[in-house]
Amino acid sequence: MFNSLFKIVYFIEFLIIVVVRKYYTAQNRKIELKVDKKFGIDNLFLGLNGVGMIIPLFYVFSTWLDFANYPLPDILGYIGALFFAAGIWLLYRSHDDLGKNWSPVIGIRTKQKLVTNGVYKHIRHPMYAAHMLWAIAQILMLHNWIAGYSFIIFLIPHYLIRVGKEEKTLVSEFGSVYQDYIKRTGRIIPKFNRLKK
């Protein structure tokens, strides 16, 4: 149950990030995809990621998973709360910068533009970075072998499978413009180019 500060903070941040994602999903629901590159393993991992996001709620609202608790210093929980806040901001910022160009599946929207400003100026996949921050925060805030690690164990293989396919789709749509963009930016870790003298 709500028997720790970190469970309460985790739940509040969880609600905020869900509201951000639902808002932008609703905004883009009716925009059609020109190319829809769905593949079975992606759908499987989307579902598993959802499970990894929901398991912590069982931990927050019950004692069912308490047998898998382990101790960590409180300072790590505070750091986790900051990571989660950074993830929320990054998810909001990346959705806002993408606008109508975002899709939850691998595909190209009709009249899609390549967004290279805002957070996309330094990082190509800030939404994955936001989810990684969330997954790390979950480990640091929920000191439980099941609830803490449930998201990251599915997120990492999903990222490794999906991001390459996304980039191939974007290269096929935007060609050398996207290839040049790859050279200037980091995949999920920002790449800051030095100013030329």
Give the key terms.
197 residues; mainly alpha; Four Helix Bundle (Hemerythrin (Met), subunit A); two-stranded antiparallel ribbon; 2 strands; 60% helix; elongated
Question: What this model shows, in words?
Answer:
The protein has one domain (5-22, 46-65, 72-184): Four Helix Bundle (Hemerythrin (Met), subunit A). The protein starts with a helix and ends in a 13-residue tail after the last helix. It has a two-stranded antiparallel sheet with strand order 1-2. It has helices spanning 5-28, 40-61, 74-98, 126-141, 152-174, 176-184, and strands at 33-36, 107-109. The chain has 197 residues and is mainly α. The longest helix is centred in the middle third of the chain and has 25 residues, at 74-98. The model has no long low-confidence stretch (mean pLDDT 90). It contains six helices and two strands; from the N terminus they run αβααβααα.
Strand order, largest beta sheet: 1-2
Low-confidence segments:
none
Output the structural class.
mainly alpha
Strand content: under 5%
Number of distinct beta strands: 2
Distance between the termini: 57 Å
Please work out how many helical segments DSSP would assign. Answer: 6
Oligomer: single chain
Q: Mind telling me the CATH class?
A: Mainly Alpha
- Arithmetic mean of pLDDT: 90
CATH topology: Four Helix Bundle (Hemerythrin (Met), subunit A)
Q: Helix-strand pattern, N to C?
A: HEHHEHHH
Q: What is the radius of gyration?
A: 18 Å
Could you give a short account of the major beta sheet?
Answer: 2 strands, antiparallel
Q: How many structurally independent domains?
A: 1
What gross morphology would you assign?
elongated
CATH architecture: Up-down Bundle
The helicity comes to 55-70%
